[in-house]
Design goal:
Largest sheet: 6 strands, antiparallel
Strand order of the largest sheet: 10-11-12-13-9-14
Order of helices and strands: EHEEHHEEHEEHEEEEHHEEHEEHEHHH
Structural class: alpha/beta
Helix content: 25-40%
CATH superfamily of the largest domain: FAD/NAD(P)-binding domain
Distance between the termini: 20 Å
Radius of gyration: 23 Å
Number of helices: 12
Number of strands: 16
CATH architecture of the largest domain: 3-Layer(bba) Sandwich
CATH class of the largest domain: Alpha Beta
Length: 447
């Protein structure tokens, strides 16, 4: 039987993985890549799967690291990224890193040699035609302005390309609740609250001044020339930029202490840092209003000066960079399709996943979903107890659509494990990983 092709826009991590998966299921693919006809400010070659930033796919530890677990799950599903990385790996300790040119050259050749994959060079500068009834948009953080405009029209989003100053996210278990306390400002319950909806880290004057000094003197990242004309997302301002406007600016902004009382000693704090639950499981909390462009090492040093966060472990540090992504929890269904136009699927960083591996992983599932439809089958989604399922569940509904920001895979996205005794740290991570690999094995038998 001859099937209509799936059109995949974007030849990066997600697009090539999606094409590989769909084609290997017997469905023809047309892969559209605008380079070299239309260049981006960051790409250096016309190769598919080009690694624009780092050459690392991060930890390869499948037992104790969420991205390492994701590596293993992708290997179990015949991932092109994992196969090619194994052939071109370079020494990197416990991480999986590759020779970037050899990796991209191999990905390109694989796409060119596959009998069911056709590569078409040239920009898709608007909404694809109606007869493209199955389209995967995997254009990444450097989506062309013309396609971005078309995506904005069909998703009703106000803006897609911007600097997103991202706030750090902390694992709940690492917060010292002997110092911090639960309380909403003025004890307001709100529509879905209890009056104890925020974790509060109070400071006296001396603690605040020490924190302020460290914050305003911390080393920050600088914009590249091609980024300088990109606006902040919704006027989002890095915390250190805000602090530079005056010593009390933060105390009248994100660190205002009004309406809060230290529940440990009933004292009135001089300043307060609040953390808000970031996922439905309550395992992750973001530091409210603390978007930052400080370098990672500086962030760890400065934020651990906050009382209650002395031993904080970060699921994600803050950052600022030009990005293009849709509000996936709002506009996508759980099969990565636009709710209002299901012929369009999205994959990769444009969905709000962060990182090479996560992008390819979402592409892997998008390709399989689209191919299954062509074959008249309905593929079940991977369980949210797996790394694949956890990142997909996060971007398609687990995250709060009002505060949605890009996210790497991490164990904070996984459902908890019920045990007779409390298990923390490495032992809990090992349990998550073991459960994930069992559940993925059982899922693979179903597809």
């Amino acid at each position: 039987m001859t099937h209509k092709p799936i059109h995949i826009i974007g030849g990066g991590m997600a697009g090539t993985e999606a094409a590989w998966q769909a084609a290997n299921m017997g469905v023809p693919v047309i892969l559209h890549e605008m380079r070299p006809h239309t260049k981006t400010p960051a790409h250096q070659t016309e190769g598919l799967g080009e690694l624009v930033c780092s050459n690392s796919f991060r930890s390869d530890d499948k037992d104790y690291n969420a991205v390492g677990l994701l590596h293993e799950e992708m290997r179990m599903l015949n991932s092109l990224m994992m196969q090619t990385a194994a052939k071109h790996s370079v020494p990197a300790g416990g991480a999986l890193a590759v020779d970037r040119d050899a990796y991209s050259n191999d990905i390109t050749k694989t796409m060119e040699d596959h009998s069911l994959i056709t590569i078409q060079r040239g920009e898709i500068s608007g909404l694809p035609p109606q007869d493209w009834d199955s389209v995967i948009i995997a254009t990444g953080p450097l989506t062309s302005p013309a396609l971005s405009s078309a995506i904005k029209d069909i998703t009703d989003e106000d803006s897609l390309a911007f600097f997103d100053a991202i706030a750090p996210i902390v694992y709940f278990d690492s917060i010292n609740m002997d110092v911090a306390w639960l309380q909403s400002r003025y004890d307001k319950e709100g529509p879905a609250g209890t009056g104890k909806d925020y974790i509060n880290c109070g400071m006296n004057k001396d603690q605040y001044l020490k924190f302020y000094d460290a914050l305003t003197n911390a080393e920050t990242t600088e914009f590249k020339d091609w980024e300088k004309d990109t606006p902040y997302f919704e006027g989002c301002m890095p915390i250190e930029v805000m602090a530079s406007r005056g010593i009390d600016t933060l105390r009248y902004g994100p660190m205002k202490p009004v309406g809060l009382t230290n529940q440990h000693d009933m004292s009135r704090p001089y300043a307060v840092v609040q953390l808000r639950q970031d996922n439905a499981l309550g395992t992750l909390y973001n530091i409210v209003g603390f978007q930052t462009k400080m370098k990672y090492a500086a962030q760890t040093e400065v934020f651990k000066l906050i009382p209650g966060l002395e031993n904080a472990e970060f699921a994600r540090l803050g950052g600022i960079h030009r990005n293009t992504f849709i509000n996936s929890p709002r506009v996508l269904n759980n099969r990565l399709q636009l709710k209002n136009q299901p012929r369009f699927r999205f994959a990769g960083q444009i969905t709000g996943c962060e990182g090479y591996v996560e992008s390819a992983a979402v592409g892997l599932i998008a390709g399989r979903l689209a191919a299954s439809e062509r074959l008249g089958k309905e593929m079940p989604m991977p369980p949210n107890t797996t790394a694949l399922g956890a990142i997909l569940a996060h971007i398609t509904g687990g995250a709060n659509e009002k505060t949605f920001q890009p996210m790497n895979v991490n164990f904070g996205l996984f459902p908890d494990i019920e045990t007779s005794k409390k298990i923390k740290g490495r032992d809990r991570k090992k349990l998550y990983s073991a459960r994930a690999l069992i559940d993925l094995t059982n899922w693979i038998k179903m597809i």
